[in-house]
Amino acid sequence: MKNFNLRDDMTEIINSAIKSVLPESAVKEALQREDFISRRNKGKIIIASIGKAAWRMARAAADILGENISGAVVTKYEHSMSEIKGLEIFEAGHPVLDSNTIKGTKELLKYVENLTADDTVLFLVSGGGSALFELPAEGVTLTDMMSITNQLLASGADIVEINTIRKHLSAVKGGRFAKLCEPAHVYMVVLSDVLGDRLDSIASGPAWPDNSTSEEALNIVKKYSLNMKNDLLEILKQETPKELNNVTAVITGSVTALCDSAMKFASEKGYTPLLLTTTLTCEAREAGSFMASIAREILNSGRPVKTPCAIIAGGETVVHLTGKGLGGRNQEFALSAANGIKGLENVVIASLGSDGTDGPTDAAGGIVDGRTAVLMEKSGFEINETLKNNDAYHALKAAGALLITGPTGTNVNDVAIALIG
Q: In sequence order, what DSSP letters do the residues of 166-204 get, joined into one string?
């Protein structure tokens, strides 16, 4: 019988699953499609790459297309690795945009001016594009955008709601970037970080007809009691493009692919995999508690799957800020799970962001077992109070339970795994 080392196995499963959804192979596959090849020799190819995986996607495209390219990359700080010949690289703030966001976006837009119908804008899109690619609409300031983004993040609004507001206050989102590229064709290659792969929501849909309406945007303002000036409310009433005729879109990666890979590698390690969902959207602490309860049920009854097993869930949970601590949704998931499996043997639970970052921290998430809660308590952290203060980072750090991968180069939502030996 195999001797299971749960923590080592968890690390290998996570690393292998992340590697399987890195953007290089996905971009290369997309650029071998006939609908792109048919345009390749017609006119100029302009690369516009945005998001947390923007550098890797642009690097892969440059390797295929050679030196006869130009364009720009806008990515998160410390997410570019070197120069790419023919491309300008800009780094900016995430999850809240900053002045470098505006600078990088303006420079990128210069490359799509005065194009012809024979030209192609290779638009490479990954998660984080909403914050990293932005030019406020006329009458909206950077300060306005930062304030509204902070309010939305703190309110517990989901990503679709956040992007609905962003689109209606932007000069490039909600299909407006594609309009700026006309008459050139936009060939969009997408790594999806939005549940359901809604193209009008990924990076706030810069090159896709917008399904959201001004009425929905105003209802979100009301729902979360956002503090917005009257002139901004008037701008929200301006509709985004509902039809575009110059765009081809290819989705090359998603949380479903990430979960499928995690199941595959868990099975190879000898665990029976069980996928719960790829659309997890509830409160992070509730999701962590639920995952712990499933682990307890399996240990007690062998239901719904026999051990050794791997329980897997993908998606993007939310956090309502009630305290002033440090953390992120995956760390809060792990902290809550630690409370639920306290004292149990043969259980390890991990939750992480596929991009390697979770909230405003250097951690991707957390990895906990039956001893983690005890170690936290010995360090002075009472879990329920720590959750109220949203201080999962410091509690997990004290227990040696932070999961730190560094930037991975991809971004396809989050994955949570429970290994039960």
A: HHHTBSSTTTHHHHHHTTSEEEEEEE--STT--TTTGGG
CA distance 154 to 224: 10
| Neighbour count for residue 161 (Cβ, 10 Å) | 20
Distance in angstroms (rounded) separating the CA atoms of residues 409 and 81: 10
- Structure-token match 């039960």, residue found: 420
CB atoms within 10 A of CB 267: 13
Q: Rg of the Cα trace of the chain? A: 22
Residue 142's pLDDT is 87
| Under 8 Å between Cβ of 121 and 187 | yes
Instruction: Report the C-alpha gap between 54 and 126 in whole angstroms.
Output: 6
**CB neighbourhood size of 88 (10 A):** 16
Q: How long is the chain?
A: 421
8 A C-beta contact, residue 295 and residue 341: yes
Question: Which residues touch 105 (CB under 8 Å, ≥6 apart)?
Answer: 74, 133, 134, 135, 172
* Calpha distance 168→133 (Å, rounded): 14
- Give percent above pLDDT 70 in the chain: 99
Other CB atoms within 10 Å distance of the CB of residue 110: 11
Q: Identify the pLDDT of residue 225.
A: 94
DSSP-assigned beta bridge partners for residue 121: 46, 186
Quote the CA–CA distance of 53 and 36 in Å, as a whole number.
21
Give the other-Cβ count within 10 Å of 32's Cβ: 10
SS (H, E, C) 294-310: HHHHHHHHCCCCCCCEE
Q: Which of 328, 199, 201, 192 is nearest to 258 (CA)?
A: 192
Q: Which of 151, 168, 223, 163 is closest to 193 using CA atoms?
A: 163
Residue 67 has pLDDT above 50, yes or no: yes
Which residues have a Cβ under 8 Å from the Cβ of 409 and sit 6 or more positions away?
22, 23, 53, 55, 56, 79
Contact status, residue 91 vs residue 51, Cβ threshold 8 Å: no
The answer to whether the Cα torsion of 351, 153, 210, 208 is positive or negative is: negative
**C-alpha 116: how far from its chain's center?**
33
Q: Residues 196-202: what's their mean pLDDT? A: 84
Q: State pTM to two decimals.
A: 0.73
**In Å, how far are 95, 280, 370, 400, 408 from 18, measured between CA atoms?**
21, 18, 25, 22, 8
List residues bridging with 102 in a β-sheet. Answer: none
